[in-house]
Amino acid sequence: MGRTKTKKQKASKTTEPSTVQSPAVPSITALLEKAQALIVQCDYELAARFIQRILDQQPSNAEAKEMLGVAQLELGDIDAAKQTFFSLLPPNPDAPSPPPPSAHLYLAQISDEDPRLALQHYQAAVELLSVQLKGKERAGNNAPSDDEIELKSNIVRALIGQVEIWMDPSYDLCFEPEAERTCEDLLETALKVDPDNPEALQSLASVRMSQQKPEDAKACLEKSWISWKDLDLDHPRVPPIPARLGLVRLFLELSLYSPALLVLHGVMTADDDEVEAWYLEGWCYFLMAEQAKENAGTLDDLSWEELAKDARDRLETCQLLHTHQQHSDKPLLEHVQELIANLEGMGIKASPPDEGEDESDAGDWVDDDANSEDEAEDVEMS
Fold it and tell me: Exposure string (b/e) for 262-290, b if CB count within 10 Å is 16 or more?
């Protein structure tokens, strides 16, 4: 009997398509949300990578361009940020119509070398924001919406930005004959937009101080502070920290120490690593100590020595934070060191490190950057 050949079984042909799926491509909306979240987290390098993925798909995406400009600013690439923001404005062919007011606002803030150009950008932003506000007011009801409140706030800040440029002694504009009248007109416009705006009232107080009208300045400051002092710190009517620190400086010029300390308490509640807040609190206690020495040695039931010791402790903490953060404000540090030297000359020593919570807390810094690379690896970049 012969050998039979074994039949080879033919491989069955698959009729179903492959079940292997390519990874889903994130949507533009998802990428924008992720980039925005990273900017809020101050992870600007990773945010820029997400933004670039958006622009690879949609080169003229205005929202992505604006976020890219913000990331570039925070990373210190000012020239690149300027180019990005200018790409959102005419005559760039890809600029949206109308252009975003924010592009003008950012460009105004980084045009330090050309104050008149900065003024032009601020005014352009005011005009665009005003058009948006009128549209909201026509479409809305009697109660202003959150969008209207935000638009008014942005208009006021753009007007105040112009006032600050006109008043800045580092520019020649403050010596122009029209400077004072221009500032008055800008602030009048701001208070028409938002009559009780605390930042506008504070700016008006600053103008009154420059005009040697301390009582008028005091009235403006009190009205400004009363409008928000009892609100929660996260309320939209509470001015941002830089504005509150400016308010403290004006309070100190007018020897209004109690409200200055209350404002500083709110600032430090929000950020107890704020170098300028520690400086201003130390300076405030220093001024109070000087006043106490002239007033039979006490002020508000505190001796001048107690006040001076509080001043020294705050200033020492400020100096530590300034060094740790490599803070850029060198004149502030010089003034802190000058005040400390004066206190040393009066026999006021710094508290031992373990004597107060302020100093011990100031040393307990957490290096947020230590985990940033690990977190970045966990972010899906598909």
Answer: ebbebbbeeeeebbbbbbbbbbbbbbbbb
